Amino acid sequence: MAEPLIAVVLVLVAGTATAAVLTRDPVRQALVLSVLGVDLAVLFTVLQAPDVALSQLAVGSALTPLLIMLTVRTVGRKSGRKSGRK
Amino acid sequence: MNRRARAGVLAVGGVGVAFLLVAACLNLPAFGGSRHPYGARAVTVSLDRHTANTVAFLNFDPRAYDTLGEVAIMFTAVLGCVVLLRQARGEHREPPATAEVAPPVRRYALLVLPVALLTGGYVVAHGQLSPGGGFQGGVVAATALHLLYLGADYRALERIRPLAAYEAADALAVFAYLAVGLAALFGGAAFLTNSLLPYGEFNTLASGGTVPLLNAAVGVEVTCAVVVLLARFLEQTVEIEG
């Protein structure tokens, strides 16, 4: 009986995942990955897997994008400095 | 061999894999439904052990040995990051300037911080009763701490985050997991067997035998590991100049 809802969420996840792949800028991609994390959490919840949904919320929506942003910022600063030194 | 020959070999392999995949998929049970063989068995044994959350039961009772491997993987991964992200030769440390934060952001972060920390602690504490557990709660609590970095600044975060203590707690948590496993040996059972403690009353905090102990150890380990991991990333970003 939940199959229409599952179908809708699956399409949403597929769309967001495609958007994540097509986004080439790491900063924007981090944001899209965060949205993808939320979508996946919804999917797992609808499929009656709340433990995995909670993992996805914690890691996929918060931790991974944060690590990506920090990495991009560090690399940006260091390469900027090196080119400035030249 | 040339590109065409390589493509031919790949195609043969691909066809084989495709055939096996389709054959396997045709043998799958129907989507949905109210009964699943693995689920039925797991729930039965979980209830025998008075553990309300079957997923936590699987992680910390029949698969406790595998979860030990996961804990070791996380510990090793963080150790690797710490080694890679240390201060290198030619780099020096500069204290970051005080950051200006918009008042609404500050209010939001400081309001949500205690709620998020409490949520993380709650999820860890109720690992064997309701969805979630040591891993989920640990990540929630660790990321919650970093709301202080968003709402105040790096110095405020540093003040309440003594890294040495978190590193020690990380290692101690892994050891605690091992200790619970070894304790079963002294009781005459196999390593990590859930036989030391009474299973208690169903759906209470003190139910499930050693499941809540292992869950708590994992909760502490994941919290400290994520804090140490983010600390190294933040350090590289905010403090270390090259």
UniProtKB/TrEMBL annotation, chain A:
Domain MrpA C-terminal/MbhD positions: 11-76
One Pfam family in the UniProt entry: MbhD
Localisation: Cell membrane
Keywords: Cell membrane, Membrane, Transmembrane, Transmembrane helix
Superkingdom of this protein's organism: Bacteria
This protein's record includes keyword Thylakoid: no
InterPro entries listed in its UniProt record: MrpA_C/MbhD, Nuo/plastoQ_OxRdtase_6_NuoJ
Chief localization: membrane
Name listed for the protein in its UniProt record: DUF4040 domain-containing protein
From TrEMBL, chain B:
Pfam families given in the database record: MnhB
Domain of life (superkingdom): Bacteria
KW NAD (keyword) present: no
GO cellular component, one term: plasma membrane
Keywords, sorted A to Z: Cell membrane, Membrane, Transmembrane, Transmembrane helix
Transmembrane segments: 7-31, 67-87, 108-127, 133-152, 172-193, 213-234
Na+/H+ antiporter MnhB subunit-related protein domain residues: 106-227
InterPro entries from the UniProt entry: CPA3_antiporter_subunitB, MnhB
Localisation: Cell membrane
Membrane topology term: Multi-pass membrane protein
Coiled coil: none
Membership in a protein family: Belongs to the CPA3 antiporters (TC 2.A.63) subunit B family.
Protein name in UniProt: Sodium:proton antiporter
Native organism: Streptomyces roseirectus
Source lineage: Bacteria, Bacillati, Actinomycetota, Actinomycetes, Kitasatosporales
